[in-house]
Amino acid sequence: MNAKVWLVGAGPGDPDLLTLKAVKALHQADIVMIDDLVNTAVLEHCPHARIMHVGKRGGCRSTPQAFIHRLMVRYARQGQCVVRLKGGDPCIFGRGSEEADWLGQHGIEVEIVNGITAGLAGATHCGIPLTLRGVARGVTLITAHTQDDSSLNWQALAQSGTTLVVYMGVAKLAEIRESLLAGGMRADMPVALIENASLPQQRECRSNLASMQQAAQDFRLKSPAILVIGEVAAQPNLQLAAISA
Ligand code: SAH
Known about the structure:
The protein is built from eight helices and ten strands. It is an alpha/beta fold. The chain has helices at residues 20-27, 65-77, 96-105, 118-125, 154-158, 173-182, 212-219, 238-244; strands at 4-9, 31-34, 50-53, 82-86, 109-113, 139-143, 163-167, 190-195, 203-208, 225-229. Strand 6 (139-143), helix 5 (154-158) and strand 7 form a beta-alpha-beta unit. The radius of gyration is 19 Å and the shape is elongated. 39% of the residues are buried. The chain has two domains: 4-113, Tetrapyrrole methylase, N-terminal domain (Cobalt-precorrin-4 Transmethylase, domain 1, 3-Layer(aba) Sandwich), CATH 3.40.1010; 118-242, 2-Layer Sandwich (Methyltransferase, Cobalt-precorrin-4 Transmethylase, Domain 2), CATH 3.30.950.10. The structure holds S-adenosyl-L-homocysteine. The site of S-adenosyl-L-homocysteine (SAH) has 24 residues, from helix 4 and strand 10.
């Protein structure tokens, strides 16, 4: 049997947003290595698998990436069906391609299964279309959190006319605000801050570029959250309106 690892996206939180392909992979898993933003409710699809939590939050010591790499290789070579389960999509700020490269270099077949990324789910669950004819001709997914010294071209982003979706931005609101203002974005550009997207405890806070940091503070915004910055963030949440009507 060929050694194989599935890199599977678990989606943003709502277990019903798993793809059928993800469910099939979980069904046949012997070992599931799970990140901490994954909703453990999805594990109902793999009741017989051994579950290993390798995430970085929840007060646990983080599992070094190199160790995760070695474990995947070891178990796959033993002929076990390994599913590496990641929040959202494995290749959107998820190190999916790094893990795939490592596995490939060690002769292990990899199959990547898309998941719905948090930015898409968060916007949709708030009634925000990330692209909108005549308003936003594109969408840019960015993270303000970098491990190296590389920095984004904020001026280009500020003037791109695309909706910006920021991941891992909660601790960087001041920096994001200053960089976009300096880059020429207007101070009253609408912003939506979306916490726990797609989960029952989802919360959203609307503000604008100038006031988003204060708004986040008043709202006690916590991670995981995404920021949607752009004209489309002024769209009302019709889903909520319909529910409360
Ligand atoms: N691969 C993931 C992103 C991992 S980076 C994906 O495609 O969604 C982790 C960041 O994703 C968090 O800091 C947060 O910005 C965002 N995130 C993940 N789940 C989220 C959720 N349910 N609600 C809001 N943001 C979320």
